[in-house]
């Protein structure tokens, strides 16, 4: 249940973040310097609306209790959200229902959420290549399962992101 709360928190984070036009967002459009790209079942996903990045990033707390959230979506509400607990340095982090971190792909209007936090067999990996007081950057891949129907899954590959912290 705590993992569902983290996904809800990340969705709220997106709603309260705004874009500026002062930096490149990793290859496509202008925005806050933040970006999030991936392939969902082989189809390109780019967190932008009208060429502007929709990616928001927050960091709350410190040390093992620190929570970093990066979320980005498109106009219809489809989004990818990454929530990392206790991640304070670059490295590779495995995600599954037993880990304190979660990653999810939520379809338009919240119809389904495919994540690593609920169903057995859901797995993922986030590789943090850079983390500082201002930003977090890395790559990810995961097989998320629908929390309402664990037999339904999505494969998210070739993910990359940069989140400029808003706090």
Sketch the topology as an H/E string, one letter per element: HEEEEEEEEEEEEEEE
Q: Classify the secondary structure makeup into a structural class.
A: mainly beta
Radius of gyration of CA atoms, rounded to a whole number: 14 Å
Portion of residues within helices: under 10%
Explain this structure:
The chain is mainly beta and 167 residues long. The chain has one domain (2-164). The protein is 9% helix and 52% strand. It is built from one helix and 15 strands. Strands 3, 4, 7, 8, 9, 10, 11, 12, 13, 14 and 15 form an eleven-stranded antiparallel sheet that branches. A hairpin with a 6-residue loop joins strand 7 (56-60) and strand 8 (67-73). It starts with a helix and ends with a strand.
What would a concise description of this structure say?
The protein is mostly beta strands and 167 residues long. The protein is 9% helix and 52% strand.
Write the layout of secondary structure elements.
Layout: H1 2-16, E1 23-24, E2 30-31, E3 35-40, E4 43-46, E5 48-49, E6 52-53, E7 56-60, E8 67-73, E9 79-85, E10 91-95, E11 102-106, E12 113-115, E13 123-131, E14 135-146, E15 149-164
Antiparallel strand pairs: 1-2, 3-4, 3-15, 5-6, 7-8, 8-9, 9-11, 10-13, 11-12, 12-14, 13-14, 14-15
């Amino acid at each position: 249940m705590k993992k569902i709360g983290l996904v809800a928190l990340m969705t709220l984070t997106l709603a309260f973040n705004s874009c500026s036009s002062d930096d490149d967002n990793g290859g496509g459009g202008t925005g806050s310097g933040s970006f999030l790209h991936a392939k969902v079942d082989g189809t390109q996903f780019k967190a932008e609306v009208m060429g502007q990045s929709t990616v928001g990033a927050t960091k709350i707390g410190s040390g093992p209790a620190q929570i970093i959230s990066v979320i980005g979506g498109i106009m219809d509400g489809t989004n990818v959200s990454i929530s990392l607990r206790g991640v304070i340095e670059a490295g590779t982090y495995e995600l599954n229902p037993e880990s304190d971190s979660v990653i999810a792909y939520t379809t338009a209007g919240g119809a389904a959420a495919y994540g690593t936090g609920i169903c057995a067999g859901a797995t993922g990996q986030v590789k943090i290549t850079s983390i500082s007081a201002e930003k977090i950057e890395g790559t990810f891949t995961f097989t998320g399962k629908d929390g309402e129907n664990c037999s339904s899954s999505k494969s998210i590959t070739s993910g990359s992101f940069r989140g400029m912290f808003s706090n």
